[in-house]
């Protein structure tokens, strides 16, 4: 076995940015995953990112190869603000970033992680087993798709989640119902219709609540941030370390409700052409013959509709239970709140050496963690900690085991706080 100090699980914006920072250090690490898999495989072709161009960058320590730089090098349309970023451009950019700064990526999937005497034993889908002192879980949203209870148990031929469909051409000529009102719902409904499907959009709310573009006045009166123009967004982007000290009730509420489901401003005209059944809540579903029948409840009563297929564009809900590659005994030992790990200021869980980044870290660090731009905060902070800890361990080994002295010195330099 090759025994790295750190194993990174996942090769999206967070995993690649962390690896790019570690690659310039003496920390031995291995990173596993398919590069930009969530974006390349789980999002529909033809969509555009909700984030502005300046907020859609991966992060290398010297700030090299931003999305803007990538687009300029290839003469691709780009603007920091106001010009939607095509998914295809973002995916190709991410792959180029990986090839240039994280060429050591191993495109194997992790199937099992458990504790070992030296830290953790990581098993790959290839059968290889890797021992590592520390593990960083950076799997993004791919494990966390949420299917409403009313649809669970129905055959996959009739019901699916929006994350299962990158290619929508198989739905040409089909009658499809899309559930949801956020960006995923509006995007996939529009793209299905444009691919030749008969589409209806069903949402519980009586309005879609489409996001509007920030005006010049908005930008003058409120700060522009990677997650939107507002003072509250500014706080979430710039004060993630403060956020984790707020009362738990407030943190959970803000993560759940701030910047909730809303379609993108540039989809307004296109979604207007899709038939919409707003103010309807699915309360029943069953397969009848070769169709799926939905029972909807609204303020006037109930109605039923039928379709060839139902796509739930109902978002993602991070949960430790869905990280099935973590051995159940390991998951059970992680201190949690709302089914997500309680994290230290350096993303470490209550299990020493086990770290979590991305959306599953949002209840500790705020809504910023739900976005790719969260890697700008995460990567340098976590990399500094991993590098400093590795150096401390080397110092302990070479100084005869003065662990307490070295650890206290490290904490004093970095200003870390406890769980």
Low-pLDDT parts are 402-419
Cα shape = globular
Q: Give the strand order of the largest sheet, numbering strands 1, 2, ... along the chain.
A: 7-14-8-9-10
Cα-atom radius of gyration:
23 Å
Mean pLDDT: 91
Largest sheet: 5 strands, parallel
Helix/strand-derived class?
A: alpha/beta
What portion of the residues fall into strands of 2 or more residues? Answer: 15-25%
Number of contiguous helices: 14
Termini separation comes to: 32 Å
State the share of residues found in helices, binned by percent: 25-40%
Number of distinct beta strands: 17
Written account of the structure:
The protein is an alpha/beta fold and 419 residues long. 30% of the residues lie in helices and 19% in strands. The chain contains 14 helices and 17 strands. A hairpin with a 2-residue loop joins β12 (291-298) and β13 (301-307). The longest helix has 24 residues, at 375-398. It starts with 5 loop residues before the first strand and ends in a 5-residue tail after the last helix.
How are the secondary structure elements laid out?
Layout: E1 6-9, H1 13-22, E2 29-32, H2 37-41, H3 67-73, H4 87-101, E3 110-116, E4 119-124, E5 129-132, E6 134-137, E7 159-161, E8 175-179, H5 183-194, E9 198-203, H6 216-221, H7 231-238, H8 240-243, H9 248-257, H10 268-271, E10 276-278, E11 281-288, E12 291-298, E13 301-307, E14 309-312, H11 328-332, E15 336-337, E16 340-341, E17 354-356, H12 362-365, H13 375-398, H14 403-414
Parallel strand pairs: 1-2, 1-6, 6-17, 7-14, 8-9, 8-14, 9-10
Antiparallel strand pairs: 3-4, 4-5, 11-12, 12-13, 15-16
Helix pairs in contact: 1-4, 1-13, 13-14
